[in-house]
C-alpha cells in the first residue's frame, strides 16, 4: 500500500543483500552501512542447530612452523610416512609401567585389600584418571579415591579384591613414581576387558634401532637441524627428545601433517569465517560420538573435510563423510583431501579413480592433485564459489 501511494519515498529504506552480504540503504538508514561484517555460522552454531554438543576440538599451534613441516613432508611423502611408522611402532612397543588385571575372587565376601600412597598435589589429576578407569573396569572398589591433604600433597586410597602376588608391586610402580604422574598427558591408559595398562608416554626416545634407509636418517637430521628434534644422537641406535607433545603427535601419526597443513593454510588465507580441527561431538542423551578432521564455514555454507595421506582410497571414507554431512550439515559440502603419493601408488590408480567417481555420485569432492593440495585454501574457496 505504501508503495502504491508513493508514501514509501517519505521513509528511510534499508535492505540486506543476501548474495553480497551487505546493507543497501537510503536516507538516514544509510547509517547501517557501517555494518559490513558478513553474517556467518560458526562450527558451534552448526552442531547446536542439529542438537549436538562439541565435546572438544583440537587447536594446533604450528602457526610459524607448519610450512616447514609440510616442505619436509612434500620432499618425500614416502620417507616421511616410513619415519612416522617407525616412531609409532617404537612408542607403542614400549613396555607398560604397570599392568592391573581383573580377577574374580574365590569368595564374594572376600574383604578388599587396601593400598595407601602419599603423592605430590600436582599428581592428583593423573591419579584420578587412573582410578576412574580402574573403577570402570571393576578392578578397584567404588570408594577408592584421591583426597587433598595439604596444598602440596594428596592421599591415594585403593581398595581392591583383584589381588595376586604381583599386585602390590604394580601399584607401587605407578604411585611411587611421581615423575610419571606430574603431567596427565604423560600417562597413557590402555584398557582391555580384563586388564588396564599404564604407560609413561614421555617425550624421550632412547635406543631406537638405527633405520636401514639412509633417506630416513637424512630426514631425522633435517628435523634436528630445525630443532624439531632436540639432543639428536645417531650411531648404531638413535636417541632424541621431542620438544613438545604436539610435535610428537605430528611425527608418530602418518597423516597428521596433512591435517595440520590444511588447518593452518585455511586460517592463514583469511578466506573463511570459521575453521575448526579435530572436532568431537556428542548427541544429547546418547553416548555416541562423532569426529571430524576439519570443519569450515563461509557465510551460511559449511564444508566437512576428511584428510587422508595414504596411497589407497577406501569407499568407507566417502560413506562416513556422506553420513556426517547428512546428519550435521547446514547448506553443506563434503570434501575428501587425499594425498595418495606413496611408493607403489600406481598399483591403486584405477581403484582410486573408481572411488573418486563414487564420491562424485554422493556429491563429495576429492581434492587429490598435488598443486590443489599445496594451494588448498584457494582450491576450497573456488569450490564453494562454484557451488
Topology:
Blueprint: H1 2-5, E1 14-17, E2 22-25, H2 43-49, E3 52-58, H3 66-75, H4 77-92, E4 98-101, E5 113-120, H5 124-136, E6 145-148, E7 153-160, H6 167-175, H7 178-181, E8 187-191, E9 195-200, E10 204-209, H8 214-225, E11 230-234, E12 237-241, H9 245-252, H10 256-269, E13 274-283, E14 289-298, E15 301-308, H11 315-328, E16 332-338, H12 349-361, E17 364-367, H13 370-374, H14 376-386
Parallel strand pairs: 15-16, 16-17
Antiparallel strand pairs: 1-2, 3-13, 4-9, 5-7, 6-7, 8-9, 10-12, 11-12, 13-14, 14-15
Helix pairs in contact: 3-4, 3-10, 4-8
Q: What sort of overall outline do the alpha carbons produce when their principal axes are compared?
A: globular
| CATH topology group of the largest domain | Trna Endonuclease, Chain: A, domain 1
Gyration radius, in Å: 27 Å
Main beta-sheet strand count, sense and barrel state: 6 strands, mixed
Arrangement of strands in the largest sheet: 3-13-14-15-16-17
Quickly name the level 1 CATH class of the largest domain: Alpha Beta
Secondary structure: helix percent? 25-40%
CATH architecture of the largest domain: 3-Layer(aba) Sandwich
Amino acid at each position: 500500500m505504501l508503495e502504491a501511494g508513493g508514501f514509501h519515498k517519505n521513509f528511510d529504506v534499508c535492505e540486506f543483500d543476501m548474495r553480497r552480504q551487505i546493507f543497501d540503504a537510503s536516507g538516514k538508514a544509510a547509517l547501517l552501512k557501517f555494518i559490513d561484517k558478513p553474517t556467518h555460522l560458526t562450527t558451534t552454531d552448526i552442531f547446536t542447530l542439529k542438537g549436538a554438543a562439541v565435546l572438544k576440538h583440537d587447536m594446533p599451534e604450528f602457526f610459524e612452523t607448519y610450512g616447514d613441516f609440510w616442505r619436509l613432508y612434500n620432499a618425500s611423502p614416502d620417507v616421511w610416512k616410513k619415519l612416522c611408522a617407525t616412531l609409532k611402532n617404537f612408542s607403542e612397543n614400549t613396555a607398560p609401567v604397570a599392568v592391573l588385571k581383573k580377577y574374580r575372587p574365590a569368595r564374594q565376601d572376600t574383604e578388599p585389600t587396601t593400598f595407601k600412597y602419599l603423592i605430590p598435589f600436582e599428581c592428583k589429576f593423573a591419579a584420578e584418571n587412573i582410578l576412574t578407569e580402574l573403577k570402570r573396569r571393576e578392578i578397584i572398589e567404588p570408594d577408592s579415591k584421591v583426597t587433598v591433604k595439604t596444598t602440596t600433597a594428596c592421599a591415594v586410597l585403593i581398595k581392591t579384591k583383584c589381588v595376586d602376588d604381583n599386585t602390590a608391586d604394580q601399584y607401587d610402580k605407578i604411585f611411587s613414581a611421581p615423575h610419571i604422574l606430574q603431567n596427565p598427558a604423560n600417562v597413557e591408559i590402555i584398557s582391555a576387558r580384563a586388564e588396564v595398562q599404564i604407560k609413561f608416554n614421555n617425550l624421550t626416545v632412547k635406543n631406537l634401532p638405527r633405520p636401514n634407509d639412509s633417506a630416513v636418517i637424512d630426514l631425522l637430521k633435517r628435523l634436528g637441524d630445525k630443532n624439531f628434534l632436540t639432543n639428536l644422537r645417531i650411531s648404531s641406535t638413535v636417541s632424541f627428545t621431542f620438544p613438545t607433545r604436539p610435535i610428537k603427535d605430528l611425527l608418530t601419526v602418518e597423516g597428521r601433517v596433512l591435517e595440520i597443513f590444511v588447518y593452518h593454510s585455511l586460517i592463514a588465507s583469511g578466506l573463511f569465517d570459521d575453521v575448526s580441527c579435530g572436532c568431537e561431538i556428542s548427541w544429547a542423551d546418547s553416548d555416541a560420538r562423532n569426529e571430524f578432521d576439519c570443519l569450515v564455514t563461509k557465510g551460511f555454507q559449511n564444508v566437512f573435510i576428511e584428510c587422508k595421506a595414504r596411497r589407497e582410497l577406501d569407499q568407507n571414507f566417502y560413506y562416513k563423510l556422506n553420513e556426517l554431512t547428512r546428519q550435521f550439515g547446514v547448506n553443506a559440502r563434503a570434501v575428501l583431501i587425499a594425498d595418495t603419493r606413496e611408493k607403489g601408488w600406481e598399483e591403486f590408480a584405477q581403484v582410486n579413480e573408481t572411488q573418486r567417481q563414487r564420491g562424485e555420485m554422493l556429491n563429495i569432492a576429492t581434492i587429490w592433485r598435488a598443486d590443489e593440495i599445496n594451494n588448498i585454501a584457494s582450491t576450497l574457496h573456488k569450490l564453494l564459489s562454484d557451488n
